[in-house]
Amino acid sequence: MPAEQPKLDLSTFLLSSIHDMKNSLGMMASYLEDALAQAPAEASGETSNTPARQKTAQALYEAQRVNNHLIQLLALYKIDQSFYPFDPREQSLADLAREALARALPLAESKGIQLDCDCPENLFGWFDYELVFGVIVQALHNALHYTRSKVFLKASASETGVVIQIEDDGPGFPEFLLEQGNAAQRGISFETGSTGLGLYFANVVASLHQAGGRAGHIVLENGHNPGSQPDSQLGGGCFSLHLP
Amino acid sequence: MSLLTLPPPDLSRYSILIIEDFEGMRAILRDILLRASATRISMAANAGNAISLLEKQRFDIVLCDLHLGQGKNGQDILEEARHRALLPPHAVWLMVSAEKAAEMVTGTVESRPDDYLIKPVTETMLFSRLTRQLEKKKALAPIELALREHEYLKALRLVDAQLEGNNPHAWDLKRLKAELALQSGEHDMAKAIYEEALTLRNLPWARLGLAKLHFNEGRYADASRELKQITDGNRAYLEAHDLLAHTLEKLGDQDAAQEVIQRALATSPRAPMRQLHLGEVAQRRGEFDTAQVAFQNSIELARNTPLKSPQAYLALSQVQLTLNQTDAALNTLSRLSSDMHGNTAARLLAEAMQIPVRLHRGEKDLAQSLARKLAAELKTGAQHLPPDAVFSLAAPLLELGETSTAAALLGSLISNHHEYPEYLQRAQLIYTQAGLENEGRELVQGAARVATDIMNRGVKLSREGKLGEAIELTREARAKMPNNARLLLNHAFLLIAWMERHGRDPALNKEARNCIELARKLKPEDKRAGELLTRLELISNDFELPA
Predict the structure, then answer these.
(1) Mean pLDDT computed over A226-231
(2) Residues B287/B307, Cβ–Cβ less than 8 Å
(3) Of A79, B77, B539, B545, which is most buried, counting CB atoms within 10 Å of its CB?
(4) ipTM attached to this prediction
């Protein structure tokens, strides 16, 4: 099936390059994770946080961060072009939390940040695993970036479904993010350097999850605000994903 | 610090196969597994190696990359392994992929992997999925065994037993239960599950299941409405597209059917059956160029897979003949012979189909000698030729004066399809166009009448309680019309009734099962096959009946 004269279509190159970069970063992340997993065994029992280990963890974080962004971009593209194989299934939130926390743990350790979790083993929710996983890992990475000393992940049942909450003891979200947090159409902010991709992605993912006339949503809050909705314990920023 | 950490699973007792074309990734996966004390790890870099390892050894766990470069992909290997029962019932198949693919989320229980992992695969991810799936498959193994024996009733009962507790995989089990219910003709049970799922949320698999029920029961407008709800929102659900195309064809909208297939092919072009389907619809619409390309693609894609069948070659040669490309048509037929060597039916088909091509080229002598040479074989092997081949052979044979061969072919076709009025009409038309209207009427009506008579006499005998005589009658008729779905089901029905009265007999049991399975292949939408399988299963049941 040979094509006649190939027509230069930049978007095809862009797409395939994103795939390629994503795969390559994924391999890099796997190698680095492997290296970190093997290191303690060689460190003769002492779980020392050596500079080499710290640097490896940092590199792993950067690789994962960009990898996540590319995965989000591709997922958003597929959703936009309506060929994302959206597959909500009833799944364990403990498994989701476990896998997401494992992603964040190397960075937390290297930065000396305490990572905690509260999630019942018998809690199940309906969700598309890969999409929600992407949102949670992104939220954990954000929290690790802005927190002072602690990050806490909590999953619980709500009246209409489940809530996954990630909070920290940092200064909290800046005012403009709180205002715009729930607006899916938030554009690129050149002032802050944030692309807004993460929030946009979280909003799209939340709203894809629908049941009983309800759609999922996200909430951004600061724990030290009076009258804060989530039962915040750490007082910093608090991101929650509500799924019906 | 409570991080929900699970201890790594103990994999020391399991044999594990890693199928991955990229060496670096193979090493990473192996290293992770070694940290869970795995000792028996085999690795394959391509589908060929993977299949030969699967043939030699019963693996408990398979980690398989979906994309393996050229040739077969992970999905093909999975389907072949399941089809050939190369895996033990408790085996866990995890598909690894760079991204979530449509193939992973649709399909039936036979074609879905147990779970999929999106790269980068991490230790925690692999361990937690393996732990969950090993535990789940251990519980499901008896169901899987019953499924392999086609004991759907037993499988259903086992699923129900598991659903009684507070099962964490409740909806996986219910989805399986609905598929089993469909297999055993329990349409109401399947419908109830799909409807319950849809009240929970808009689940594509449940809507697809409901559409299948509508389709099988001939409610094409309802099927189309449900399917469009899936496909309008998303073109990733390929199975829904395929069924929608079939539904639209039934509704007479060939244009829309082709559009839907082409949409599915844009998402996933490497699907030989879908390419074949496109070719068939395009051919019917007179878009011969599109049809030709589609048939060629189908042949290429199926060449080294179990999906390879003479159908695409036959269709391609016919389109080429229509397009006056007789050299190409002959070439296609000789490829059919060589690609499917060892298959006598395919060889006969390839040779016989040269007759219309030779005639078209004005090579009447060649056509004549070929027809004479094959006459005996065609008469005895008529039942092995697909209806399309018979229809395109009959007219040339009449033109060559080979009336007895033509009559044998069409007679066999009609007696195997006496309930399909469109076949009767087509056969009559061929005779009429050859100026043999009366001969045609005699043959077509005669063959159809013989078949109907046998059915009626069988029913009458069985009503009179003369089961033995009825069985003799249908058994004899089966030898003459081996592909008549109704006859097969009637014969199975009689055998089952006999065993219900006189007790189980292994030979009759096997005979009945063969009939039902062949009938199901010929007429997949008929729920009688499933119902009879259930009754057959009850005769030899060694388990308690569901209340």
Answers:
(1) 52
(2) no
(3) B77
(4) 0.82
